[in-house]
Amino acid sequence: MNNNIFFLFFLSIVLLSCHKIPQEIEPKLSYQIDESFIKSLPGAFPALNEMEKKEDFGKEYDVAVKFAHDLDFYRAITSFKRASYLLDNGHEKEKLSCDYSILLCYYLGQKYEEVIFTFERSPLIHVNKENFKPFKDLLIILYDSYKKIKEEQKSQNMLKALELNYPELKKKLEMTEALLKADTLSIEKASSSSSDKNEILSQVHAYKKEKKSIYAAQALNALLPGAGYWYLGQRQSALTAFLINGVFIYASYEFFHKGYIGAGIIFSSLEFGWYFGGIYGAGLETKVYNERLYEKKFNPLMNKKGYFPVCYIEYAF
Fold it and tell me: CA 301, CA 187: separation in Å to the nearest integer?
């Protein structure tokens, strides 16, 4: 019975430690919103006239816009909501402008679930290209927000609507999607017609040259514990892994050599855990290394060139 338990324990260590690591990386790329970007965009709705600015609604709306320009989205949302509450029935257009402004604040503040919550519970769900000026922006926001919260089907529906109504956006979104996914083959294909082709391909080639192989890291660590970490430049981790494995191997040998079979089995099982765990860890660290490398290469480029969905919106407050 004890032998069966030990065998199952040992087998679980091996299977978990040798779990396959995906080759695809998942870099974290983000656009840094600044005041100049927001202020450079025209308002999505007509500016209030002098009479409207003196009304309670107009005062709150004007304050909300100022907060939004200062990137104080929390206070802007609160003021837009107050402005909406102050409107009587018959002011559907003004209420719609408040709803959209709230949605835009949530989007710029990277609160994607709140974006969808606002959209699906407001009259914005019924607008179209003919009756709503920032319709393209709304589709871009929804496409990006659904993607961020992992609702791929709804995100693709928004993409189809964008391609149908604004076909010129297709190539930009293809480039953005390829860059965000770190799909180098798609990046090379999408960049063929881009004015930034040379700069993009230069970064792709540099990344391919400098990235590390997961298989190489794992193979090295299998041959010599710690070698996979050394390959990544993690000298301290490499030395630690080598010493720990060495200690357990030596202890296991000594226990078996002196006839302490039980202790030898225990230390051998622990060593198998360290050994196979080191192989898995080296592969995982390689994936992380490549993700940080990709971010270093492409995040500045994407911010500089505006390769994010938020950069394609045309109106603000």
Answer: 13
> In degrees rounded to 5, what are phi and psi of residue 32?
-95, 105
pTM, two decimal places: 0.81
Distances, alpha carbon 123 to alpha carbons 93, 132, 134, in Å:
10, 11, 14
- Residue 1, pLDDT score: 44
Instruction: From residue 41, give the alpha-carbon distance in Å to each of 36, 61, 204.
Output: 9, 18, 32
The phi and psi torsions of 42 (rounded to 5 degrees) equal: -70, 160
Mapped onto helix, strand or coil, the DSSP state of residue 269 is: helix
Q: What is the pLDDT of residues 235-275, one digit of tens each?
A: 999 999 999 988 888 888 888 888 888 888 888 888 888 88
Predicted local distance difference test score (pLDDT) of residue 40: 93
- Which domains are seen in the chain, by residue range? 1-29+171-308 (no CATH), 35-167 (1.25.40.10)
The span from the CA of 287 to the CA of 212, in Å, is 8
> In this predicted structure, what is the pLDDT of residue 274?
86
Low-confidence residues in the chain, pLDDT < 50: 1-2, 5, 8-9, 12, 16
Any long-range contacts for 305-308 (C-beta under 8 Å, 24+ apart)?
A: 305/196, 305/199, 306/31, 307/172, 307/175, 307/176, 307/179, 308/29, 308/30, 308/31, 308/176
Q: Output the pLDDT for position 82.
A: 96
CA atoms within 13 A on the CB side of 282: 33
State the Cα–Cα distance between residues 134 and 124, nearest whole angstrom: 11
The alpha carbon of residue 38 and the mean position of all alpha carbons in its chain are separated, in whole angstroms, by 22
